[in-house]
Amino acid sequence: MVGGTDGSAIRNEMYWTVPDADGSVPGWKHLDQTDLPAEGLEGASAVVVGSNVIIIGGTMRDGDLSSAVRANLAPQEPFFQAGLLGAVVPALRIEGEIGQQLGYLSAAGAGTVNSVILILIGWAYAHPKSVRAFIDRRRGRRPGRGA
Question: Model's pTM, two decimal places?
Fold first, then answer.
């Protein structure tokens, strides 16, 4: 459900739900990031293409809309992807500006760690003798001797 009017004002919210296996609706979900532009929209035509809806035409507070608006019908629940193997951990849902800032910090931290790992891998490939000597020292062998 996206846009429309409540009888007194044009709305801009988008709500979605996923029915259960028996067809009942457990509840409607809403994310501010998926809303229409601030003016809202009513009287538009909707076309579903895959997991997206394209809303064509309609009326905004300032007048008729002569373009289209696209929205995703199946936004994913928040999650964190951790580690090199990509273990998926459900995210804490913290509402408001604080939650958004925590998400940015988490993404920046993951990006920084991944960048450091890639730099170390690149350095290891560029310096194979140093890496072999390091591994030999860790195993208690003298450098230059075979197993």
Answer: 0.40
